[in-house]
Specification:
A six-stranded mixed sheet has the order 1-2-3-5-7-10, sandwiched between helices. The protein has a four-stranded mixed sheet with strand order 4-6-8-9. It contains ten helices and ten strands. It is α/β, with parallel strands linked by helices. Helix content is about 50%, strand content about 15%. It folds into two domains: about 200 residues, Alpha-Beta Complex (2-enoyl-CoA Hydratase, Chain A, domain 1); about 45 residues. The structure holds coenzyme A.
Length: about 260
């Protein structure tokens, strides 16, 4: 269905695999277009309750934007490339009302690190490596990396990583707060699926509001507290809130409908 992605839906989780293993799954124009379309599908398809993004092969998650597309770009072309990617893919992932997890299975560099960071949280295999090496190319991150890396690891470490281009391994990434869990390569997708299956048992509209509120906080949105109050109130007009409260009081398991 997609030229550069493999997709499958398993128990309500859409697994998107960036599939250019011979090029370390680098993000060229085709991958960005395919990811955009796959995310549109994820937003609208009611069978999709959550999303995993991963890379094909055992070496790379995504080793960055495709450097071979950079040579002919001027300032306007570079800005256009970054804006297109942010609008069509990275912001769409961050703002997705369904949970999106990155299963990072190897090199996660440049645009690959940015892709992982746009996801709601990350799980890494032990061989994963993270970095923002753009300064090696006379560039800076353009898919939100300066912003999201700072949100996740703090200003000092973000400055160091983006200025030195150093890579950090999976365990260090975990210590920094960049990833939530480090597991073996074999356990990577099962771990991501297991967490998402747990989230599938919760109230979907409430889950979507958690995503929106935490995103507000990460962006230091001055309306974050007000938005939380509004969204908390909105929960009271959902069927799922009635079901959740009733099921607790009746000592039974809630059956949420996403309404
Ligand atoms: N863009 C385009 N092609 C890339 C790429 C990228 N970001 N990253 C890797 N590739 C390609 C290589 O050019 C090579 O292609 P070839 O076989 O046609 O020559 C292939 O993927 C394999 O990569 P190679 O460098 O031979 O593998 P390696 O194991 O020696 O090194 C990396 C792996 C990830 C360390 C190395 O490929 C790398 O540094 N990539 C660029 C990372 C980067 O700067 N990303 C930020 C971009 S803004």
């Amino acid at each position: 269905m997609y030229q550069t992605l493999l997709t499958e839906i398993e128990k309500g989780t859409l697994i998107i695999t960036v599939n250019r293993p011979d090029k370390m799954n680098a993000l060229n124009k085709d991958v960005i277009a395919d990811l955009s379309n796959a995310l549109d599908e994820a937003y609208t398809n009611a069978d999709v309750k959550s999303i995993i993004i991963t890379g094909a092969g055992e070496k790379a998650f995504v080793a960055g934007a495709d450097i071979s597309e950079f040579q002919t770009l001027d300032a306007a072309g570079g800005a256009h490339l970054a804006k297109l990617g942010q609008d069509k893919v990275f912001s769409k992932i961050e703002n997705c009302p369904k949970p999106v997890v990155a299963a990072v299975n190897g090199f996660s560099l440049g645009g690959g690190c940015e892709l992982a960071m746009a996801c709601h949280f990350r799980i890494a295999s032990a061989n994963a490596k993270f970095g923002q090496p753009e300064v090696n190319l006379g560039l800076i991150p353009g898919y939100g990396g300066t912003q999201r890396l700072t949100q996740l690891v703090g200003k000092g470490k973000a400055m160091e990583l983006a200025m030195t281009a150093d890579m950090v391994g999976a365990e260090d990434a975990k210590s920094l707060g960049l990833v939530n869990y480090v597991v073996t390569l074999e356990e990577l997708l099962p771990k991501a699926k297991e967490i998402l299956q747990k989230i599938h048992t919760k109230a979907p509209l409430a889950v979507a509001k958690v995503i929106a509120c935490v995103n507000d906080a990460a962006k230091c949105d001055p309306l974050g507290f007000d938005n939380e109050i509004t969204r908390f109130g909105e929960c009271f007009s959902t069927e799922d809130m009635q079901e959740g409260v009733n099921s607790f009081l009746e000592k039974r398991k809630a059956a949420f409908k996403g309404k």
